[in-house]
Amino acid sequence: MTDKINLIKLSVGTEGIETLAKWQARKDLRTKDGLPRHVTRMWPKREAEILKGGSIYWVIKGVIQCRQRIIRLDEITRADGIRRCAIVLDPEIVRTQNSIRRAFQGWRYLNPDDAPPDLPEGREDEADLPVELNRALAEIGVL
């Protein structure tokens, strides 16, 4: 029996969680059934494990700040004729405790034991800290 696995991905050009939400709200970036998606060149080999409740954890400005549950993987072919994977996401963005991550290319698998926990109930609507303060607090283990 396989356990679930998550993905981790840099959200390049995103300034914060609100920017990520605005980007995903664009209709041209959604599936035909209206769900947000992220298109990637590589198809995850561990698809079955991802679809057992896995999430994509978003690294924003060098810090994991949130996650979204992965609903399904859709095959799409763009104008260049190349097959790609659309990672279809739950529209709910769940804030997590901050965790510093170095830059990397593409996406990576993230073991559930290595994923930061969700923010405790009642804290998910708090305003984001400034990026520099957020990173400094995460570096010393406060967040």
User: What is the 3D form?
Assistant: globular
Q: Span between N and C termini?
A: 34 Å
How would you spell out the order of helices and strands?
EHEHEEEEEH
| Helix share bin | 10-25%
Beta-strand portion reads: 25-35%
Main beta sheet: 7 strands, mixed
Parts with pLDDT < 50 across at least 5 consecutive residues: none
Number of helices: 3
Class inferred from helices and paired strands: alpha+beta
Mean pLDDT: 89
Describe the fold and architecture.
This protein is of the alpha+beta class and 143 residues long. Helix content is 15%, strand content 34%. The chain has three helices and seven strands. The protein has helices at 17-24, 47-50, 131-139, and strands at 6-10, 37-40, 55-60, 63-77, 83-89, 94-100, 107-110. Strands 1, 2, 3, 4, 5, 6 and 7 form a seven-stranded mixed sheet that branches. The longest helix is centred in the last third of the chain and has 9 residues, at 131-139. 22% of the residues are buried.
Short characterization:
The chain is α+β, with helices and mostly antiparallel strands and 143 residues long. It is 15% helix and 34% strand. The chain has helices spanning 17-24, 47-50, 131-139; strands spanning 6-10, 37-40, 55-60, 63-77, 83-89, 94-100, 107-110.
Defining traits:
143 residues, alpha+beta, 3 helices, 34% strand, globular
Question: How are the SSEs ordered, and which strands pair?
Answer:
Elements: E1 6-10, H1 17-24, E2 37-40, H2 47-50, E3 55-60, E4 63-77, E5 83-89, E6 94-100, E7 107-110, H3 131-139
Parallel strand pairs: 1-3
Antiparallel strand pairs: 1-7, 2-5, 3-4, 4-5, 4-6
